Amino acid sequence: MDSFLKEKLDEFISLFLEQKEVKQYFALKEEIENSNELNELSKKIVEAKKSLALSFGTNNHEEKKKEYLDLQAKYDSSPLIVNYKMIKEEVEYLLKEFEDKLKLSR
User: Fold this and answer.
1) pLDDT of 67 strictly over 80
2) 68 and 48 in contact (C-beta within 8 Å)?
3) CB within 8 Å of 21: residues ≥ 6 apart
4) Which one of 4, 19, 52, 72 has the lowest number of neighbouring Cβ atoms within 10 Å?
């Protein structure tokens, strides 16, 4: 890679990582990863999903489906997850903007 391209790429990465939204994204991601409550809930969701899959054609399928959907709704409505999803969309938009700028500068 020539030095000019490397310099521009490093500049882009630095600029991107300094964006408020990107910093928030990584902070929220770390907070989610370190949340015992969300980790436990995530494990319960995986188990409920397995139980749901194994319950097809049985009498308790609807019960297992409700259990899974309730757990997933609880996870999705967590303030950390709600904020994470919103900021993730903003970061994806920023990436798209940077991509468009790169295309224009060719």
Assistant:
1) yes
2) yes
3) 87, 90, 91, 94
4) 4
